[in-house]
Structure formats: structure tokens, C-alpha cells
Amino acid sequence: VTPIVRTHVGSAARPTEPFRPVLDAEIIGRLERLGESTNQDLLGQLIALFRTDADTRIDDLRRALAEGDAGAVLSAAHSLRGASANLGARGLSDLCARLESDAALSDLSTADLMLDALEAELLQVHNALQQTVVMP
Amino acid sequence: MRILIVDDDATSRLVVESAVRALGHECFSVTDGEQAWDAVQSGHPDVVLSDWLMPGMSGVELCQRIRGRTSGEYTYLIMLTSQATVEQALEGMRAGADDYLLKPLNPDDLAVRLIAAARVTYLHSQLARQRTELKELNVELVAIARHDQLTGLGNRLALQEEFEKLEARVTRYGHRYSIALVDIDHFKSFNDCYGHQAGDNALRDVAHQLKAATRKGDSIYRYGGEEFLCIFPERSIPGGAVAVERMRSGVQALAISHAANDLGVVTVSAGLSMLDPGATRPVNEVLREADEALYRAKELGRNRVESAARPVGLDELCTLDEGLKVP
What we know:
- The complex is a heterodimer of chains A (about 140) and B (about 325).
- Chain A is built from five helices and no strands.
- Helix content of chain A is about 70%, strand content about 0%.
- In chain A, helix 3 runs antiparallel to helix 4 and helix 4 runs antiparallel to helix 5.
- In chain B, helix 7 crosses helix 8 and helix 8 packs across helix 9.
- In chain B, strand 9, helix 10 and strand 10 form a beta-alpha-beta unit.
- Chains A and B meet through helix 1, helix 2 and helix 3 of A and helix 1 of B.
């Protein structure tokens, strides 16, 4: 496993806390092994998919928030949560889950703030994924 | 197995597809509930691996639709949910899902669940096959139970069911039927003389001859040992008598040797009666009349057709009654 991804320490950790790893090493390792067993660069494909997908979801979230459409927020947050969880981006996935559950209750009062935090975390995820691909 | 993956998120689909293929299964994917429903019906997957929250249709609804199918094929349903929303698993299982898996997917967990899925779908397919076999066997048994093996004609059970229908038709629609009892003359002597094998052959030949003499819509049953019952829909007694007379002469023309019989060949006697709306008599009564007519045909020398002629003159009736009382 690449050294930049350390073992995840407790799910209660806040995504903004510095010791919290951006990516879960175990899940990244799992995807690498799965890719090897099916003779494909699964991780590379996932990262490429995620790169475009995640940005689209952020755009969707922005638009949905501007329109006050809780249903659309819910749907976009859910998709992004699944995608980020697949890549072991727990901090990002947790943020999406919170946004999703608020949207499920039609509570968008703190959604703007959460979306800012979400974008900041996404940037970190993008960087960490980039390094994962670069690392041999 | 053939596995359908339902997820609107492309990364999730890619992960699940890879994990399923790594386990040696075939898979195809769709992105929402409506597509999933179409794919289940047209693609016949053994297993559906579906995300719980999908655009267009809820996981519950997909579960219910799949379980509501009556096609007989069993679709094993695994819901995908995250740890944060694990209560959805309970909801899913209640709606008809077979199992659930947590996202992000652990390929080892998937392997375990798919072993269970293979076992359960195999059992379901066996059950479905046995059910089909039982159904076919049942149809066969129903036919066998109503058939006389020797002559190929309907038997007493088939006749009993037919009579129930006839009575209803007579009462409800005013239909009428003439009914004939046909009996081989001196058949006991035939068996004594030629043996039971020859007796069976004669029964079969006579049955075929009787059957050949009926018209479309008429029916004929083996009523007893050497006795047959014919039903002629919408025919009065004279009309029925013509048909039975054709049967009688047909049997005689077969020229089956029967030394103990008057003509030296096998012949039949017949008694005719009628089930009609005017008389409103039960079938049993009509059968008794036919039996009396048959008795009379025997008394009058056999190889002939007698009718329970109605209306019957009082004198004639008394004479007949007298005749019947003779032990």
C-alpha cells in the first residue's frame, strides 16, 4: 500500500482534523487487488470516473441549493457519497451523508456551509488520488 | 450466475461489476429502478444487486414489484446500503429482499453472499421444475383416471362428471339428450368359450365399432363389464333409435364368431331413454328407464333396440310392469 494513505483512525474523527487520512488505505488496497484479479487498471478507471463525476455532482448540488430543491440535493449528495465511499474517501463520504440526511428532512439551513466544506475536502481527495496514481 | 447491477453512480457500478466478474459471474448494469424492472423481465437475471436509493423508483418498490411477479422464476435480490443507513436493510428485507451488502463493497463479502444466492436460486429452480412436473403429471392422472384402458373410452368417473354437466344444461338451457345403454349379448358365454383374452379383444373391437358409428358431438363411455353408454345431444328418442340401430347393425357386421349366440356372431342389445327439460327427471331415473328398455330388448330376443317410449299407454305400461316383475 502506498505510504501516503495511512490506516484510518476511528470514524468519529472530523474530516478537517489534520491526522485524519483522506483516503482509506484498506479500500484502496482492495481496489488494487480487485483490478489485478480482473486484469484491468480498476483504480485508474475509478479515479478518472470520479474526477469528472464528482465535479458534476458539485455543480448539481450548487444548482439544487440555489433553487432550494431538497430532493435534488438529496439525490446528488447520495451519488457523491457512494462514489467517494467506493474510493475510501471517508471524510468526503461522511460530509455527503450529513448533507443527504439534512436534505431528506428538507433542512437546507446549513447546506451552503456544508457544501463549502465538501468542496475543500474534495480538493484534498483529488490530490490524494492523484498521488495514488503517481505512486508506483 | 447472471447478475443485474442497479446503481446510478458510475464508480459504484464499476466496482460492483469488477467484483462480480472476478467471481466468475456474468453481469449487466442499469442506472435506475424503471430500467431495472425492465431488465428483470427481459434479461432474466438470477440475482439483482441494487442500490437502495435510485432515481425514479424506491428500493422498496423494486422489491415489491419483483416479488409480485407470477412468472414462477425466482430472482434473488440483494440490496446495497451504507453503514449509515443500515436500517434500510430491514426495510428492504421486509419488502422482499433476500439479503443486503454494505457500501463500499467488500469483494469478499460479495463472494460469501453470492454462494448463498446460488444455493437459494438453485433450490427455487428445482421447486419450480417439480411444480411444473407435478402439474403435468396431474393433468395426465386426471385423464388416466377418466379413461378405460382396454377400450380407450371414457369410464364411469368421466360419465358421472359428464352427467352433472348435462343435468345443468337441461335445467338451465333446456337442452335434451337421448341416452342409450348398449350391452353385448351372452358375453359371459363368449368368455367361457373363447377365453378372457378373446373377450378383451371382442370388447375392444365392439367399442371401436360403437365409437365409429357415433357422430361428432355424441359421446360414448364404458359403463360396466360389457355395457356401454351413449349420449346423443339434441336428439329425441326416434332420432336416438336410428343412431343406436346403426351401432347394432355395425357390431353384427363385424362378424366376430360367437357360437353360443343365435346368429353365431357377436351382437348387442340396446335400451334407449331421454333426458329432457319437459320431464325434469333426474339422470338416475333416465338411466333406470334405459335399463328397463335394455331388459326388454333382451327379453324380446336380443340383437335389437328398445325404447322407453313416452308417453306410454297405460295398458302397455301395465304389461311392461307385469313383465318386469317376473323373477
